[in-house]
Amino acid sequence: MAIGVFDSGVGGLTVHHRLVERFPDADFIYLADQANAPYGGRPGEEIVELTKAGCVRLFDQGCDLVVLACNTASAIALRRLQQTWLPGYRRETGRKVNVLGIIVPTIEAATGMPWEHEAERRGDKVEKLDILGVFATAGTVSSRVYEIEIDKRRQDVAVFSEPCPDLVPLIEGGAGPVELAKAVEAHVATLSKRIGRTPDRAILGCTHYEIIADIFRAALPPGTPLIHQPQSTADALARYLERHPDYVAGASGKRRFLTTGQPGPQNGLVQTFWGGPLSFEAA
């Protein structure tokens, strides 16, 4: 089998890259739904259907395990698919397939707590709040998944989210550093104004944003810690595979890159991040 990695576009390559580093012998198939990107402004039901279709494509390609390297899909579609669609799909196909997301490992990294942990509500006064900024798509922000799930685990962490609907189209379109820096600086300024100061830490809550992490670092105060989703996702997948040895990730080191959009070479911004030429096949 291979491990599938799914995103609406090229942002999931940041997760894919780290997974390949962590599991160099495993087989990976990456699918970018560029024909329908970005997902952030789409209705919830549409995001669920598009995500399901992407998973089916990867299952059809031989993947038994799919990682949703997309915050919007993870926030809006993942639980629905796991609870209402996957059980029937498994029965119909006789295959033990599964779909994992990236929000759970990100929240574990942000809180330092396992997903199963929930804080006791004792009414103790919080002496010092840790202000956590989340930069994400409009869909992820509207789900309030980070606010809700982090509050369950850490009462001393206050989450403020900033929707950045312009960033994914800019990154997918290969925008230059000046244009990207202007957009990121505006979002950091907007969030900081709403909080009353800059955040203590930040989550880049869209995998596309990892491609321009250096621009976020420059826009935030020096030394502001960034919580990196690719690393936390790789760590979580390693733990998952240890607990489920029946999922075999392949051993040939095969890599395939598929797109529902225009096949061929990706833009210069993506290739600079990737470290060389990168071409997608038609899905």
TrEMBL record:
| InterPro entries per the UniProt record, alphabetical | Asp/Glu/hydantoin_racemase, Asp/Glu_race, Asp/Glu_racemase_AS_1, Glu_race
- Catalysed reaction equations from the record: L-glutamate = D-glutamate
Q: Where along the sequence do coiled-coil regions lie?
A: none
A Gene Ontology biological process term = regulation of cell shape
The residues that hold substrate are 7-8, 39-40, 71-72, 207-208
Q: Which UniProt keywords apply?
A: Cell shape, Cell wall biogenesis/degradation, Isomerase, Peptidoglycan synthesis
Q: Does the keyword S-adenosyl-L-methionine apply?
A: no
Which pathway or pathways does this protein act in? Cell wall biogenesis; peptidoglycan biosynthesis
Please list the residues that make up the active site: 70 (proton donor/acceptor), 206 (proton donor/acceptor)
Top EC category: isomerase
Q: Name one GO molecular function term.
A: glutamate racemase activity
**HAMAP family named in the record:** Glu_racemase
Q: Which family does it belong to?
A: Belongs to the aspartate/glutamate racemases family.
What protein does this entry describe?
Answer: Glutamate racemase
